[in-house]
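Work Package 4 report. The design task specified in the project plan requires that, given a folded chain encoded as structure tokens, an amino acid be chosen for each position. We show below one input record used in the internal validation round.
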């Protein structure tokens, strides 16, 4: 064959050539049985092969070489049998077998789509030729057996791409070490280590510096481990998020599979909102438009059709129409896969709360540095002016008489005190607390059917003041069934619908349902229940038509040719189709959609006997029928028809229309169906919970206003006092800007709304200062989801465009899960505030005690090791205990946090200042009078101060569980983590005091002295109860942390 590359074939020469080739091949076999088998093989399949090849040759008009279709690497070594082998159907099937495609073919297939090369497609023989090469029957798909799938994966690869390796633990360790706070602490550790060894020698001088390094090490490790786990959690969520379900046709059966299981040769069904799962070519469909901006950067929608633009790129989104595509390349061989290979996700997203806490930590650190510098200055002045004494009561500094080594040792000791001040002032546990609570809440929310796509949504949801929700599938079960049917002026309720119809009317319903739909019906050969796919509305109507009307969808498709399709979208709320029945010279136009809209397009209606009557006199009756059905919570769908002669144009005659549109006037109403979609059982309770939490619920739906009212009342969104709070989308959008701003708060339900109406409402609410959460499932909901503070997409019915535009995906499409997300959002914010209150109590108390003691006596009661121990157990363990509290019912009884609420509220200031002042007062009494009161040595006194201070924090940890409730032990026995952490803290404190005396600079305490420490600490419980009885007004804004920091620095400067 290699010598005939330039030969132009006609049909007869191909047949002769193939016959001769088969003769040559079979002549090689001497065995009669094999020869007979070969001839039988040729006789059975040659007719199909001849037709396929003849069609190919004719389509090229004898200008292309046949061998170009397959482009082999060594065509001279292949016979005609090798070339036609991929085209031969498997025995007993209508599928082409996948025998072998060369690497050149695979590369050419991939490049053809990526480059949108029509010439290359033509060389393959068009879409049919491509289907032949990759072993697919376009109308039935691939065989889909395990062996078939594995061969395709082996030959063409899987629909996955190689991701960059995930960040390891070492990366997060280095990232944690790069923190400013950690760098300051390590610098202090270096100073302390050097000064300590100089003063006390290597054997004991390393204690303080070593303890700082140990503390830093533990904080870094805990922080790195937490971030590492969060990274892995994000990867898991990313895999779940990317695991899109795709509808494919395999062995003539529609089925849902994972996007990762799509293989070359698959026939994929596409509809509005779908993400194209792989590169491929257009097979069949109508009005298909795609958004390729994610690939090309061009925002204009691309119209796809079979002749001029048949190529579909993976990663693009379907924005209009529907179609079937043939997959030609998957995974890394696609444009999307190649791009994703080089992209790594940045998980270092800083949420608004984390940014605010970073600022808080920085401000407190600056205060600590200022105080430390002040202490250093005061102590140096005291020392060099002779105001300090040694252990024998002599002046430490006596001018030139003092040995230089003594001066250096004294300066080192003073610097160590200043370092201690810095260490105690820096709240290194705050960032850790945020990381822990966000990671914990994300994991728990996943268990509650909410997948967080953006960390900031965890916090922002707690501030939500308005939730704009869809109806279908969110407030309702999304399990639609036809329960009512209106033919003419007659109503039927779940009886034998087909018996009520004249044959002509029944035929019109068959056409209007079977051919004007994006759904499909698959009848298993076993004769079991038909499998119906499509949207919930389409599925309900198809089930009704198949089960109650006896419709055969395959028969209808075979007998009719679809001429034009007007696809359904949320703006038009209707779909249309023009068809021609075989052997007839007339065209039937069918419309289906929102009942009142279809009714407005009709001039006639068909009565129960099949007679056509004028609708003018009966229009009001039909409108009342629709309203009555809608008031019963039914979704009303109407069917209309028009019969047009073949020589009459069935398109609308309108100027400035780039796309042809079916005629919408002069239609005949065929009938109306009512679909029931029951409310979810827990919806009303969830709505009432949100209302009690001060969150307004607004229902935005495309349904009839009467249906919307009925459902809203059933769910508790509307009650008898809410008259006048229901509007239609067209009414809302026609308001002036001032009217919208005035009325938007009062609106509870917006019916017959478009996605732009939803966007308009979100914009108005945000302008009024609301924090808005929006649910959405459609492609056109994307602008509203992005505009809202929190976008909530639906995991089941939501399109991929909607999911990628959202912050959180509600996996079960249930409004109750939306309320759960609200509860978790408040919990995250509340847990952070609890820890801030707890942490600042520790810092304020320790800072003031050491500052006063250092300035007054030149020494500090709490050593660096002891303060680091306090910081360690309070920061790490305290963060873990308080950051993992689960949501409580009380959180949903408070008003929303609001967009401008200060991070540290006046209630928090009240609690933390009261506890801090108590601890400061008691510990300063012990500092100055403890020796005489308890008749103990200085070492025992300092140990008492240290022990009492730690135990105060342990008891205050219980107080921090609730900032306002008097009883803080509610649910304590269920929180095993909290109890475990408290137990570990107490055990470690006993070890520090009783066993690690040399390291911690402590002395053993008697039982009585332990009792005194516990007694001092336990007073914090009744004190907290008394303090919480003091009312706090929220009318005036509280001090922000920045003002607090500036005020403290100003006061300290003024005092000294």
């Amino acid at each position: 064959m290699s010598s005939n590359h330039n030969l132009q074939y006609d049909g007869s020469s191909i047949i002769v050539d193939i016959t001769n080739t088969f003769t040559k091949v079979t002549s090689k076999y001497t065995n009669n049985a094999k020869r007979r088998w070969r001839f039988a093989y040729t006789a059975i399949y040659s007719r199909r092969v001849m037709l396929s090849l003849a069609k190919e040759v004719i389509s090229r008009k004898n200008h292309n070489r046949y061998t170009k279709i397959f482009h082999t690497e060594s065509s001279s070594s292949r016979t005609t049998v090798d070339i036609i082998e991929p085209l031969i159907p498997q025995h007993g099937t209508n599928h082409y077998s996948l025998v072998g495609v060369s690497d050149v073919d695979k590369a050419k297939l991939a490049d053809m789509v990526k480059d949108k090369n029509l010439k290359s497609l033509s060389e393959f023989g068009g879409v049919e030729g491509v289907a032949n090469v990759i072993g697919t029957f376009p109308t039935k798909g691939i065989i889909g057996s395990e062996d078939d799938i594995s061969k395709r994966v082996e030959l063409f690869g899987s629909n996955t791409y190689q991701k960059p390796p995930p960040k390891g633990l070492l990366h997060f360790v280095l990232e944690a070490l790069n923190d400013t706070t950690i760098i300051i602490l390590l610098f202090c550790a270096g100073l302390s280590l050097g000064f300590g060894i100089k003063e006390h020698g290597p054997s004991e001088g390393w204690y303080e510096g070593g303890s700082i390094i140990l503390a830093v090490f533990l904080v870094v490790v805990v922080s790195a481990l937490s971030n590492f786990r969060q990274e892995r959690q994000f990867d898991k969520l990313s895999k779940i998020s990317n695991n899109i379900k795709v509808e494919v046709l395999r062995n003539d059966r529609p089925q849902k599979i994972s996007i990762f299981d799509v293989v070359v040769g698959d026939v994929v069904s596409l509809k509005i909102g779908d993400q194209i799962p792989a590169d491929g070519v257009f097979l069949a469909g109508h009005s298909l438009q795609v958004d390729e901006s994610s690939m090309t950067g061009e925002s204009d929608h691309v119209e796809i059709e079979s002749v001029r633009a048949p190529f579909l790129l993976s990663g693009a989104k379907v924005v209009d129409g529907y179609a079937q595509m043939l997959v030609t390349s998957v995974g890394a061989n696609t444009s999307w896969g190649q791009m994703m290979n080089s992209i790594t996700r940045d998980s270092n997203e800083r949420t608004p709360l984390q940014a605010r806490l970073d600022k808080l930590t920085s401000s407190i650190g600056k205060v600590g540095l200022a105080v430390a510098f002040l202490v250093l200055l005061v102590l140096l002045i005291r020392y060099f002016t002779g105001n300090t004494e040694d252990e024998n009561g002599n002046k430490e500094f006596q001018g030139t008489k003092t040995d230089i080594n003594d001066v250096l040792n004294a300066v080192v000791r003073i610097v160590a005190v200043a370092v201690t001040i810095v260490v105690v002032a820096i709240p290194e546990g705050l960032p850790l607390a945020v990381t822990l609570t966000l990671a914990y809440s994300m994991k728990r929310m996943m268990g509650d059917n909410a997948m967080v796509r953006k960390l900031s949504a965890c916090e922002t949801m707690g501030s939500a003041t308005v939730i704009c929700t869809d109806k279908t599938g969110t407030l309702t079960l999304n399990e639609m069934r036809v329960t009512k049917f209106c033919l003419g002026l007659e109503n039927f309720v779940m009886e034998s619908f087909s018996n009520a119809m004249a044959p002509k009317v029944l035929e019109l319903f068959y056409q209007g349902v079977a051919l004007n739909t994006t759904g499909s019906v698959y009848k298993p050969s076993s004769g079991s229940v038909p499998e119906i796919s499509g949207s919930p509305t389409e599925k309900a109507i198809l089930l009704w038509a198949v089960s109650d009307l006896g419709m055969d969808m395959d028969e209808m498709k075979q007998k009719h040719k679809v001429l034009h399709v007007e696809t359904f979208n949320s703006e038009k709320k209707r779909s249309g189709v023009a068809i021609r029945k075989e052997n007839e010279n007339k065209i039937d136009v069918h419309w289906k959609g929102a009942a009142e809209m279809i009714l407005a397009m009709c001039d006639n209606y068909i009565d129960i006997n099949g007679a056509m009557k004028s609708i003018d006199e009966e229009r009001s009756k039909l409108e009342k029928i629709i309203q009555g059905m809608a008031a019963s919570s039914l979704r009303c769908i109407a069917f209309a028809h028009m019969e047009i002669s073949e020589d009459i144009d069935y398109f609308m005659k309108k100027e400035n229309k780039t796309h042809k549109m079916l005629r919408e006037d002069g239609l005949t109403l065929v009938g109306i169906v009512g679909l029931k979609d029951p409310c979810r059982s827990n919806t009303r309770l969830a709505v009432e919970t949100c209302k009690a939490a001060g969150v307004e619920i607004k229902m935005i739906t495309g349904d009839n206003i009467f249906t919307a009212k009925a459902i809203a009342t059933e769910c508790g969104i509307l009650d008898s006092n809410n008259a006048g709070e229901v509007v239609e989308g067209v009414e809302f959008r026609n308001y002036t800007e001032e009217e919208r701003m005035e009325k938007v708060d009062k609106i509870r339900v917006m019916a017959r709304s478009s996605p732009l109406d939803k966007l308009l409402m979100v914009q108005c609410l945000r302008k009024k200062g609301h924090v808005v959460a929006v649910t959405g499932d459609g492609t056109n909901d994307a602008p509203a989801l992005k505009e809202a503070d929190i976008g909530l997409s639906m995991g089941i019915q939501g399109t991929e465009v909607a999911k990628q535009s959202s912050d959180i995906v509600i996996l079960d499409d249930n409004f109750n899960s939306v309320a759960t997300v609200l509860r978790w959002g408040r919990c995250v914010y509340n847990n952070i505030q609890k820890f801030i209150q707890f942490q600042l109590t520790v810092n304020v108390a320790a800072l003031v005690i050491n500052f006063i003691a250092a300035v007054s006596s030149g020494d500090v009661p709490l050593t660096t090791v002891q303060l680091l121990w306090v910081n360690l157990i309070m920061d790490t363990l305290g963060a873990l205990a308080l950051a993992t509290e689960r949501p409580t019912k009380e959180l949903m009884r408070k008003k929303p946090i609001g967009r401008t609420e200060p991070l540290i509220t006046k209630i928090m200031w009240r609690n933390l200042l009261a506890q801090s002042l108590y601890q400061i007062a008691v510990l300063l009494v012990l500092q100055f009078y403890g020796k005489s009161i308890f008749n103990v040595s200085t070492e025992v006194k300092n140990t008492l101060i240290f022990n009492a201070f730690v135990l105060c924090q342990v008891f205050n940890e219980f107080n921090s569980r609730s900032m306002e409730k008097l009883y803080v032990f509610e649910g304590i026995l269920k929180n095993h983590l909290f109890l475990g952490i408290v137990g570990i803290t107490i055990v470690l404190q006993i070890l520090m005091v009783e066993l690690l005396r040399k390291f911690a600079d402590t002395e053993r305490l008697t039982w009585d002295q332990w009792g005194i420490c516990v007694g001092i600490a336990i007073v914090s419980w009744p004190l907290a109860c008394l303090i919480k009885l003091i009312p706090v007004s929220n009318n005036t804004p509280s001090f922000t942390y920045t003002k607090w920091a500036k005020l403290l620095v100003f006061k300290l400067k003024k005092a000294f």
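The domain at 107-163+263-329 is CATH 2.70.150.10 (Calcium-transporting ATPase, cytoplasmic transduction domain A). Validation will be extended to a larger panel in the next phase.
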